[in-house]
Design goal:
single chain, alpha+beta, 4 domains, 6-stranded mixed beta sheet, 3-stranded antiparallel beta sheet, 17% helix, rod-shaped
């Protein structure tokens, strides 16, 4: 910290008089020019001593050299700069491929269980996007299917949609065994609409064959029985 020489002391006093004159009733100085030794403000005397630091040891301010959650002291500018420089820019952005363990590409094979997606299948939280290969395990759609794996802990599920086949595959369970405990595939025809209400609810009851010599009444009764069985199975609407 710089010392106050005569010129600096005179300049300081002039500034103080100007600043304080509007705040106090009476501001007086003892001495003049470069020989001012004291300033009196409303009867309270402020004495300057030449060739000493303006801020004495008792008035020094402690400036911290590191950030702290408990200190009430000011901190060095360079410390603040370094801390802020380590933060992400306000203009930064992310995409799914830049995030670790979120994007998964399956191997071109028909074998494999949950570990084909990730070895942590029995723990943690999953929300992963999957890119399939030409071949895939039975529980995942083939032909470069896009998939989504999700779940928490030992409860996981996978949904996959083939890129070139009209197939959608669902899989879940079997975490303890390391491979999905169940899976099924829905297959359809492109540009067709399907209603879940028309999906058969069960298998049609077995029907005995008629002999070639059956009577007309027997044939009619058999047809009615088949129609009833189709409705019961959900294959034919009522």
């Amino acid at each position: 910290m710089a010392y106050l020489d005569d010129k600096g002391l005179s300049h300081l006093v002039t500034k103080l008089k100007t600043m304080l004159s509007s705040c106090f009733n009476k501001v007086e100085t003892i001495g003049s020019g470069n020989a001012i030794t004291d300033v009196t403000i409303d009867g309270n005397k402020l004495t300057f001593k030449r060739n000493t630091t303006f801020a004495t040891t008792n008035n020094n301010i402690t400036v911290d050299s590191a950030l702290s959650s408990t200190s009430t002291n000011p901190v060095q500018n360079k410390v603040v700069y370094t801390a802020l420089n380590g933060k992400a820019s306000t203009t930064h952005s992310h995409n799914i491929t830049s995030l670790d363990n979120v994007s998964v590409t399956l191997k071109n094979t028909t074998t494999g269980g949950w570990s084909a997606i990730s070895d942590d299948y029995a723990k943690g939280t999953w929300l992963k996007v999957i890119k399939g290969a030409n071949y895939a395990p039975a529980w995942y759609a083939q032909k470069y299917a896009s998939g989504l794996a999700f779940g928490v802990g030992d409860i996981k599920g996978v949904l996959s949609l083939s890129n070139s086949l009209t197939k959608v595959c669902f899989a879940s369970g079997g975490i303890a065994q390391g491979t999905p405990g169940w899976y099924f595939t829905l297959t359809g025809t492109t540009e067709k609409e399907y209603s879940l209400d028309n999906i058969p609810k069960s298998k049609m009851a077995a029907q005995a064959e008629l002999s070639s010599s059956a009577s007309l009444t027997t044939v009619i009764n058999k047809v009615n029985a088949i129609i009833k069985a189709l409705k019961t199975a959900g294959i034919m609407n009522s």
